[in-house]
Amino acid sequence: MKFRKRSSYMNNVQLIVGVLLVAVIVAANIFTSLHTESFEGIVTDKEIVYKTGSDNKITRQYRVTIQDTADRTVEVYQISESLLHGSFSTATLYAQLNIGQKYQFKVSGYRSGFFSMFQNIVAIDTANSDIHNRADTAEIS
User: Percentage of residues in the chain with pLDDT exceeding 70?
Assistant: First the structure.
């Protein structure tokens, strides 16, 4: 039985297709991360979702439910590290958010229910919002 040697042409085509596929995936990730928007919203809920991977490694995802003050829509966002936006303190950012408080949010990415993708909160700002801290509003007796 003779086996035909695969032609170098087919090897080159497979290599080119593979490189193009990787390039498209990388470009899509960068394109998604470059899309940013800012809005003012009120935090209505927070949760930490734990997931166990196939290697039994447990990962956590910080999720925040926000009501947009402009159009009153409610959306779920995530807080995850972003090299592109220099956002590396996800736990601290999550801890700074208080339910019922109003913040100025900067988010990146797109929401895709099909892929279970959430927009990522990359920055919060309390200075531009009409926020009354609990310490400021507490009565002193």
Answer: 75
Q: Which of 100, 111, 102, 48 is nearest to 77 (CA)?
A: 111
Going from N- to C-terminal start, the domains of the chain cover 36-132
Identify the residue with better confidence: 104 or 15.
104
Mean pLDDT of 101-114: 87
CA–CA dist 76, 112 (Å, integer): 11
**CA neighbours closer than 13 Å in the CB half-sphere of residue 54:** 0
First to last CA, the chain: 96
**3-class state of residue 28 by DSSP:** helix
What tens digit of pLDDT does each residue of 2-29 get? 555 566 777 788 888 888 888 887 776 6
Q: Is the pTM of this model over 0.85?
A: no
The hierarchical CATH code for the domain 36-132 is: 2.40.50.660
DSSP, collapsed to helix, strand or coil, labels residue 126 as: coil
* Residues 6+ away with beta carbon under 8 Å from 122: 36, 82, 85, 87, 106, 107, 108
Cβ neighbour number for residue 35 with a 10 Å cutoff: 11
